[in-house]
Amino acid sequence: MAEAVLGGSAEDVSIKEAGLRYEVDGEIATITLDRPEKRNAQTFATWSALARIGDDLPEQVRIVVVQGEGPSFSAGIDLRMFTPEGVPGQGSFSSVAQLDNVSFEQRIEQAQQGFLWLRRPEIVSIAAVHGHAIGAGFQLALACDLRIVADDVKFCMKEPALGLVPDLTGTKPLVDLVGTAKAIDICLTARFVDAEEAFRIGLAERVVSGGELTQAVRDKAAELLSTNRDAATATKRLLQGARGRTLEEQTAAERVEQAARIKALFAVS
Ligand code: CAA
């Protein structure tokens, strides 16, 4: 019972069965949400497979691209979760609602692991977003470091309209990117944010036409790969920590990272 309710079998589902494609080409890994006929709706199996990809990411990978097949990046969580039958082998919200709080929170934590690794300092993750990015789809785009979007993009944080909160790691990056007031506006209205607004408020780094999206992401990956790998990792670590530190703490962190860099580059053994 607990296994089915917890979606334990989601762990055993292959990447393909979880609705994903995954390719590694040298320093670039590409994850494609690949259930276009269901608008790349996501399940616990999707998040478990994403976490496994993160765990097994080859060391040489520096760039991770997340994209969607078909007309939408992702229509969010599989709506079968809201039905009594749920998603086969993964339960439903009504079955999950029977869990005690600790077990339930553990289940969400497992799902969040599919998103959190995309922020690792050793990689830069790029979401290539087109069409709808709703709920879990929006949060997956927010889990990435950069968002390059097609001009037909429509972001929507649908959860509050469905009686839920966004819980797949999206709230902090959203606030960091657009500020608390705009995040409240976007989430509590569950309205659509189009490409022009996404660019204007800092949700998207770049807007291109749908036909240019793949090339725009390739170009950004090439630019990112042109810098020194270890320096890029250390710099990302510094930038990620900057908001949580005072100027004094940040400058101290810069000194520590730079000492390590200069020693690595110039120390005579
Ligand atoms: N789950 C399961 N199936 C979905 C789906 C979803 N989230 N979204 C779309 N589909 C299915 C449709 O049922 C349809 O299947 P059939 O052909 O078998 O009928 C197929 O995908 C195509 O869908 P549409 O005909 O609706 O496609 P469209 O291009 O006209 O519209 C859309 C696209 C605007 C994304 C629309 O499908 C839609 O609104 N989907 C639901 C979005 C939603 O509410 N998602 C939940 C977000 S909240 C969340 O994600 C919560 C969380 O993390 C906890």
Concise description?
The protein is of the alpha/beta class and 269 residues long. Helix content is 43%, strand content 15%.
Structure description:
With 269 residues, this protein is α/β, with parallel strands linked by helices. Helix content is 43%, strand content 15%. It contains 11 helices and 9 strands. The strands form 2 sheets. The protein has a 6-stranded mixed β-sheet, with helices on both faces. It has a 3-stranded mixed β-sheet with strand order 5-7-8. Helix 2 links the parallel strand 2 and strand 3 (63-68). The longest helix has 20 residues, at 247-266. It is globular. The protein binds acetoacetyl-coenzyme A. Residues 38-39, 41, 71-72, 75-79, 132, 134-136, 158-159, 162, 164, 168 line the site of acetoacetyl-coenzyme A. This is Enoyl-CoA hydratase/isomerase family protein. Pfam families: ECH_1. Belongs to the enoyl-CoA hydratase/isomerase family.
The coarse silhouette is globular
Secondary structure: number of strands: 9
- Compute the average pLDDT: 94
Low-confidence stretches: 1-8
Going by helix content, strand content and strand pairing, the class is alpha/beta
Protein name: Enoyl-CoA hydratase/isomerase family protein
Family: Belongs to the enoyl-CoA hydratase/isomerase family.
Descriptive tags:
269 residues, alpha/beta, six-stranded mixed β-sheet, 11 helices, 43% helix, disordered N terminus, binds acetoacetyl-coenzyme A, Enoyl-CoA hydratase/isomerase family protein, Enoyl-CoA_hyd/isom_CS, Ech1-like, Enoyl-CoA_hydra/iso
